[in-house]
Amino acid sequence: MIPAGAIRGAAEGGVRRFLGIPYAAPPVGTLRFAPPAPPMPWTGVRDATVPGPCAPHRVKDFPGLDVAPLIGRGWQGGDDYLTLNIWRPDNGRTDLPVMIFVHGGGFVVGSKDAAVHDGSGFARSGVICVAINYRLAIEGFLPIPGVPTNLGLRDQIAALAWVRDTIAAFGGDPANITVFGESAGAMSIANLMASPLAKGLFRRAIVQSGHGGMTREIGVMQRLVRKLAKLLKIPADAEGFRSVSPETCFDALEKIAMPTARIDLRDAEGREPVFGISRFTPVHGDDVLPQRPLDALAAGAGAEVDLLIGTNAEEMNLYLVPTGVRDRIGRLLATYVVHRSQPHARKLLKAYGMGRAGVKPGQALTDALNDLVFRWPARRFAKAHRGRAHLYEFDWRSPAFGGELGAAHGMEMPFVFDTLETTTGPQGLTGEAPPQDLAARIHALWVGFATDGRLPWAEFDGETRHVYSLSAGAARFEPVMPAAPFLP
């Protein structure tokens, strides 16, 4: 029994699971562009054995790679999608540590129900695992005039507050909550560390392939509002966007996501903090994020939160290897791609070897973007944090695509959740025979950190620069990256 009513879950394999529990009212009608409202009470017993709907989005195929385990199988229709899943051990223990997962997907796709982040493994390890949905794209991250900003982040904050207030009913300890997420989910958590509205809602944070550097000014993002309104043939205001259904927007979202779309989201210094990976990001300059997250951290925001943050060694391989871009792109186009986001494109690519004998332009581009987009900003975030921070690197290389996919974006996920079976196979992210012993070790590290904060390596700082190699199981000194002078 929870405040909104009674629920019925299921038990199997030593795990109790409760799926599709509402933490907020359905975001439709007058609530579509409103802050999350409390869930509607129900009578009788609610069936919590099926996942239910997810936020409206459209998933496209990825060349030669099955990404459904990572992001789900697309939109599962229905209004009541501000929901969460809970997995707990099938025993009578209470005061269990709690982990809340925020899924990735570029703020435009994804679901709490993707197979790779099934929380059963954490439950078997003695942790309550929670996974949440939140509003995406136009509904979640478009600062439409007349609409509250950062609705997707507000949904996440509402979910965290629900867990704090309700998780004891499932045997969880509301004073021992760890939030974790990957990609856009990791960016979200980094932002929540800096948000005054999320203060006190979690004790620890794990940021996987993310950081706080991917927010935009509201004025810059309103260029996207106007572009989408033009494509949809509606006024660029709240009334205009309320007049079109989420499904109607899918084609327009695909058009503005194309590299050829004429939309400039650079700031006054000529920098695009997301490097074209997604048009949608949270914005700063409102009550959710009054400051840029890095500035807020430097001023002491989130200092009470223990932080585990890290990246994969070859993040951009996910985007540039299956598509063939890394092997085909020439010098001029590589320079143009970087110039769209970075004012010193030639100097940057030269720092990564472009023009040097034996270095292909696509490899220089890939190496530069690995550091610019993910690796160096994560280090900056750890250094700016005024509390405890530990840094890891996931460097196991997948044999997929003839061994060229490597330690790509998202690769750590099945190791963290101990769900390698979901990504194993001829088109699987981890190839045919990924190492189960490494998954067991990485999963145990996450469990230990969530339980009592323990980690087997020293904190990160700008001098010692300890970075823990997950594959080697040891910390090492890491020098400053060539990307460092090119980011503010």
From TrEMBL:
<comment type="similarity">
    <text>Belongs to the 'GDXG' lipolytic enzyme family.</text>
</comment>
<dbReference type="InterPro" id="IPR002168">
    <property type="entry name" value="Lipase_GDXG_HIS_AS"/>
</dbReference>
<dbReference type="InterPro" id="IPR029058">
    <property type="entry name" value="AB_hydrolase_fold"/>
</dbReference>
<dbReference type="Pfam" id="PF00135">
    <property type="entry name" value="COesterase"/>
</dbReference>
<dbReference type="InterPro" id="IPR002018">
    <property type="entry name" value="CarbesteraseB"/>
</dbReference>
<keyword id="KW-0378">Hydrolase</keyword>
<dbReference type="InterPro" id="IPR019826">
    <property type="entry name" value="Carboxylesterase_B_AS"/>
</dbReference>
<feature type="domain" description="Carboxylesterase type B">
    <location>
        <begin position="3"/>
        <end position="454"/>
    </location>
</feature>
<protein>
    <recommendedName>
        <fullName>Carboxylic ester hydrolase</fullName>
        <ecNumber>3.1.1.-</ecNumber>
    </recommendedName>
</protein>
<dbReference type="InterPro" id="IPR050309">
    <property type="entry name" value="Type-B_Carboxylest/Lipase"/>
</dbReference>
<comment type="similarity">
    <text>Belongs to the type-B carboxylesterase/lipase family.</text>
</comment>
